[in-house]
From TrEMBL:
Encoding gene per record: mltG
Organism of provenance: Planococcus glaciei
Official protein name in the record: Endolytic murein transglycosylase
Membrane topology term: Single-pass membrane protein
Family of this protein: Belongs to the transglycosylase MltG family.
Location in the cell: Cell membrane
Length: 374
C-alpha cells in the first residue's frame, strides 16, 4: 500500500471519528437539555405543589370543621388529623412548615376550624387553644328565647334577613325534611308532631356565633345553631337510650327549666319537682307553657288564663307539652338528666327571684302569701 492510500485511509478514519464525536456531543447535548427540562419541570412542579399546599384549602369557605386533638398528640398525628378533615392540603408539607417556623406546644382540645384559615392561623389556634381568627361579626342568641323572639330580636337586628324570612324557613316543610335527613341524631319525626307549633322551636342553641363573611346565608346561620344543639345533646345519647327517652323529650323538658329559672334559681331542684309531679300523675302546672300556648307575652296570669285549653298548657294537660317552648341552655339540658333528690311538689319565685320549694299544697300557699302576697 503506497503512502497516498494510507493517508486517505487515515483521513477517512479521522473524518469518521469527527462525525462520531459530533454525534456523541449532539446526543450528550440533547440528553443534557432533556434532563435539564425534566429537572426544571420537576422543580417547577414541586415548587407549585409546595406553594399550593401552603395556601388555605378553600379561601371562601365558611364551614366550621370540628376536630378533637387528643392529649399526647404529636405533630405527625395532628398533621394527619388536619389533612383528613380537609383543613390542610398536605400533612407532610404542614409538618415541615411548622418545624421550619419552629412552632411547638400544641394544646389538646376541641377546635372549630375553617378550611379558609391559613396555616399560621391554624397553628396559632392549636397553640393557644382557641380559634385565632377575628370574625367580621357575631350573632348572639340569649337563653330562653322562642323562635318568634329570635326572629325579631336577633335575626332581624343582626343580619340582612327579616323576621318574616326567618319564620318562613321555620315553617318550610321541605326544608325541615332536609334538616331531618342531615341531622338524624338530633332531629326526628317527633318535631313534626300534630300539635307541635314550630318544628325547630328549642333546636336553635343559645350561644354566640362568629361569622367570617359579611352576608352568610340564612341556611348557614340556622344550621350553625342546630349543630350547636346537636353537640350539646349527642353527649347524652347513651343516657337517653338507657332512659328510653329522645332528644325531643330532653329539649322539651329543658325548655321548661329554662323558662322557670330566675337569677340564682336551682334548675336541678326544679327538675326534681317536675319529675315528682309526673310520678304522681299530677299536671306540671308551669306558667310559661300557658303563656306560650296563648301566643302572647303576659307579665301576670289570671285564673281564667289557667283554664285556657291548648295542647301546650300544662294546667289543662298532664305531662310535658308537645315540644320545647324556648331555647334551653347547657345548664338546663344537664339539669334534666341530673335532678336533685327531693320530695318537693311545688315551688315559687319571690320578687327577688329566689325560689322557695314545698312538699305540700298548704305549705306552698303559706309561702305564696309570705313571699308574693297572694
Amino acid at each position: 500500500m503506497d503512502k497516498q492510500s494510507k493517508k486517505e485511509i487515515m483521513y477517512e478514519r479521522m473524518s469518521e471519528k469527527k462525525k462520531e464525536v459530533k454525534v456523541v456531543r449532539r446526543i450528550v447535548f440533547i440528553v443534557t437539555v432533556v434532563l435539564l427540562l425534566v429537572l426544571g419541570i420537576g422543580a417547577f412542579a414541586a415548587y407549585s405543589y409546595v406553594t399550593d399546599a401552603l395556601e388555605p384549602v378553600d379561601a371562601d369557605s365558611e364551614k366550621v370543621v370540628e376536630i378533637e386533638v387528643p392529649i399526647g398528640s404529636n405533630l405527625d398525628s395532628i398533621s394527619a388529623l388536619l389533612e383528613e378533615n380537609g383543613l390542610i392540603k398536605d400533612a407532610r408539607i404542614y409538618k415541615y412548615y411548622v418545624k421550619f417556623k419552629n412552632q411547638a406546644d400544641f394544646q389538646a382540645g376541641t377546635y372549630g376550624l375553617l378550611p379558609s384559615m391559613t396555616l399560621d392561623e391554624i397553628t396559632e389556634s392549636l397553640k393557644t387553644g382557641k380559634v385565632y381568627r377575628e370574625p367580621l361579626f357575631n350573632i348572639t342568641v340569649p337563653e330562653g328565647l322562642t323562635l318568634d323572639q329570635i326572629a325579631e330580636n336577633v335575626i332581624a337586628k343582626r343580619t340582612k334577613y327579616s323576621a318574616e324570612e326567618f319564620m318562613a324557613k321555620m315553617e318550610d316543610e321541605a326544608y325541615i325534611d332536609e334538616l331531618i335527613v342531615k341531622y338524624p341524631a338530633l332531629l326526628t319525626e317527633e318535631i313534626k308532631g300534630e300539635n307541635v307549633r314550630y318544628a325547630l322551636e328549642g333546636y336553635l342553641f343559645p350561644a354566640t356565633y362568629p361569622f367570617y363573611e359579611e352576608d352568610p346565608s340564612l341556611d348557614l346561620i340556622i344550621e350553625n345553631m342546630i349543630k350547636a344543639t346537636e353537640s350539646n345533646v349527642v353527649q347524652y345519647q347513651a343516657v337517653l337510650e338507657e332512659m328510653d327517652k329522645t332528644p325531643h323529650w330532653l329539649l322539651t323538658f329543658a325548655s321548661l327549666l329554662e323558662e322557670e329559672a330566675t337569677a340564682g334559681s336551682d334548675r336541678n331542684t326544679i327538675a326534681s319537682v317536675f319529675y315528682n309531679r309526673i310520678e304522681k300523675d299530677m299536671p306540671l302546672q308551669t306558667d310559661p307553657t300557658v303563656i306560650y300556648a296563648m301566643g302572647e307575652h303576659k307579665e301576670r296570669l289570671f285564673n281564667k288564663d289557667y283554664e285556657f285549653q291548648h295542647p301546650y298548657s300544662t294546667y289543662t294537660n298532664k305531662g310535658l307539652p308537645p315540644g320545647p317552648i324556648a331555647a334551653a341552655g347547657a345548664s338546663s339540658i344537664a339539669a334534666v338528666l341530673d335532678p336533685a333528690d327531693t320530695e318537693y311538689l311545688y315551688f315559687l319565685a319571690d320578687k327577688e327571684g329566689k325560689n322557695h320549694f314545698s312538699t305540700t299544697y298548704e305549705e306552698h300557699l303559706k309561702k305564696r302569701d309570705e313571699y308574693i302576697g297572694q
